[in-house]
Amino acid sequence: MPAQDTALHFQDARQLARAIRERKLSSLALTQHFLDRIERAPALAAYSEVTAERALAQADAADRLLAAGISMGPLHGVPVAVKDSIHWEGTTASGGSQTRLGAVSTVTAAAAHRLVAQGMVILGKTRMTEFAFGLSGQNPTQGTARNPWDASVARAPGGSSSGAGVAVAAGLAPLALGGDTGGSVRAPAALNGVVGYKPSSGFISRAGCLPLSDTLDVLGPITRNVADARLLTQLLAGPDIDDAATLALPAVCVAALRYPSPCNAGAVAVLAPQAWPTPLTDAGLQVWHQAQARLDRAGCTPTTWHPPASLSFARMAEDNSLVLAYEAYRYYGALAEDPAQPLWDVVRARIAAGGRISQASYEAALERRQADMAAFAQAMQGVDALLMPACDQAAQPLDAQDTRHAGLGKLLRPANFLGAAAIALPAGFDADGMPGAVQLLAPAGGDAAMLDCAAALEQVLAPAARLPDLSAWGL
């Protein structure tokens, strides 16, 4: 491979696709490049299963098709990683749990089908928090992915799509597909210094994925930039009879992803700090103020947005946890109540708590959700995206009881409860050199305009690319 290709692993997906399309690079060589890096970095623990033989066969097929003049899509031949909760026939879908050790999928998820149908190459399955129940990314039973920004201290990789965030940040995949029920795409993106996009419900079919919450589950990409996130979502989006949410989404919302537009002046507002659902640490505030200063210097100062009195972001975060726990118990309660099952005690307690929530409380939360979604959409008229912090602090050392990163959930879960489109964007570093992030929100279905704003802001918020020092990881 030519010397200039040593940085292939940090090129974005569209660059790689262009090189393949122009025959400057083969999918087979690119796939082997990523597989070699994955093999050299087992300590990062980004993957739960590497499907090397399959990936090389897919890459060879992509090259043969291209040689015959056939391109399956704009990311033809580009490698991708998928979360361990996404079924792919013949591979393990453990959901991060030892209770499903050796559970080989007999079906393939709709999203995985679409990846393959686009000519993309699946490198393997990425690690995750057990049953997607946690935002720090910790998983002591199967192994925790390592945040690549600190080789000396085991810090939170972000969860639950922990391995997906680590894989993209460390150049072990150009992009990855995760899931976001309470922030599980945005948390690993935020803590690893990459982009994480949670589409509105209904964009990407969840059929064939291990569930956590039917109401809240969403699939979304983790990528190097907004354009890659937008493109991958566009390729995976569309109606699926096996996921009713995709049938309820207006087709115009999906179609709009195809037509990026300049972000209009005044299209972004910033959530008033007194409405934040949790305070930021001093280090978190420093990153936030630095981001605000960069926006000011670029002439992008957002107006302050005050939510209506009924719309408490702190209460919506709590309601999201209530709905998630109630529905998760219906799937995994029997496991949690069985002491013989090898669950992490922290996740066991979280699942079991869902069994103590009354049906009346659950139904009341769902009613509030409908009212909140309507109120948010009404209050956001004339605003394409709402800017707010994505994390109260950068990744901290992991703690046994997994309480140190509770602020992540308070900041990220309101978007899930609102059914909102949301995206986490890199926004600087704390004094320890750990990444910080902000997020943009838009009412359900407003994804395209929000992504237009995100594309405009990303270069302002992080104008100079900064990558982790991977030498300690053998990379």
UniProtKB/TrEMBL annotation:
Domain Amidase span(s) in chain numbering: 30-451
Domain of life: Bacteria
GO MF, one example: catalytic activity
SUPFAM superfamilies noted in UniProt: Amidase signature (AS) enzymes
Gene3D superfamilies according to UniProt: Amidase signature (AS) domain
One Pfam family hit: Amidase
Protein name: Amidase
Organism the protein comes from: Achromobacter arsenitoxydans SY8
